[in-house]
């Protein structure tokens, strides 16, 4: 007779182990490109994770790398594939130059990657949105049932300066959690699969 609980199968165990191994490998690649003393003294922390991408023009899962120094310095960059698909060359193409790393280590804010030339924004959409500014919401930030985070809508029709002309996200959200940089994210769609009432 089968009980109410099932244990993960060996295929699930193998997939989870492969993901952990790939995550460690990518983290080691990033750390190898930083000054050894920064990593050894934990002056710098490297975090690697997968997040669900809501943009239909990108991969469904991105690998996100966070390089975090004190005083809020550092960077976050994404690689449009699952962590086991990341190649060492992907890391090389995203890493900041040594002078930027030294500025972060000194507690100086330095932008990386540099902002590209700003395209014209284009007209702001006028579509009605479901959630008003100030509304508590839950946003999809990763896969699975644990991939939701609560926050507050802080703006409608958010647009990053580097986005192509006419591209806007319906919402900008300030997350309640404090482990994701500034905690400001955007919801690319006004749909329950991306943003819902908290």
Contiguous low-pLDDT stretches (5 residues minimum) are none
Give the number of helices: 4
Structural class based on helices, strands and sheet pairing: alpha+beta
Query: How many strand elements?
Result: 8
Largest sheet: 5 strands, antiparallel
Query: Distance N terminus to C terminus?
Result: 40 Å
* SSE arrangement, N to C: HHEEEHHEEEEE
Q: Give the helix proportion (percent range).
A: 10-25%
Strand order of the biggest β-sheet: 7-6-5-4-8
Q: Domains counted in the coordinates: how many?
A: 2
Apparent shape: globular
Instruction: Tell me, rounded to a whole number, the average pLDDT.
Output: 90
Radius of gyration: 19 Å
**Percent strand:** 25-35%
Question: How would you explain this protein's 3D organization?
Answer:
This protein has helices at residues 10-32, 36-40, 88-94, 98-105, and strands at residues 44-52, 61-69, 74-79, 136-140, 148-158, 169-175, 184-187, 195-197. The protein has 198 residues and is of the alpha+beta class. The chain folds into two domains: 16-105, no CATH class; 136-197. Strands 7-6-5-4-8 form a five-stranded antiparallel β-sheet, with no helix packed on it. Strands 1-2-3 form a three-stranded antiparallel β-sheet. It is globular, with a radius of gyration of 19 Å. The relative contact order is 0.12.
Question: Which properties best describe this structure?
Answer:
4 helices; 5-stranded antiparallel beta sheet; alpha+beta; 3-stranded antiparallel beta sheet; 198 residues; single chain
Structure summarized in a few sentences:
This protein has 198 residues and is α+β, with helices and mostly antiparallel strands.
């Amino acid at each position: 007779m089968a009980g109410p609980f099932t244990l993960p199968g060996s295929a699930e165990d193998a997939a989870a182990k492969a993901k952990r191994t790939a995550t460690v490998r990518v983290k080691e690649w990033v750390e190898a490109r930083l000054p050894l003393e920064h990593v050894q003294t934990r002056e710098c922390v490297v975090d690697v994770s997968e997040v669900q991408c809501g943009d239909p023009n990108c991969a469904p899962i991105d690998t996100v790398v966070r390089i975090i120094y004190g005083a809020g310095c550092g960077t976050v960059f994404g690689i449009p594939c699952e962590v086991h698909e990341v190649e060492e060359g992907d890391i090389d193409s995203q890493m900041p130059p040594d002078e930027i790393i030294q500025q972060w280590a000194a507690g100086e804010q330095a932008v990386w990657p540099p902002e590209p030339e700003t395209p014209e924004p284009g007209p702001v959409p006028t579509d009605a949105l479901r959630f008003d500014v100030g509304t508590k919401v839950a946003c999809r930030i990763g896969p699975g049932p644990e991939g939701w985070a609560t926050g507050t809508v802080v703006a409608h029709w958010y647009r990053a300066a580097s986005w192509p002309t006419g591209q806007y996200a319906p919402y900008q959200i300030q997350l309640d959690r404090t482990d994701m940089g500034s905690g400001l994210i955007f919801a690319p769609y006004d749909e329950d699969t991306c943003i819902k009432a908290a």
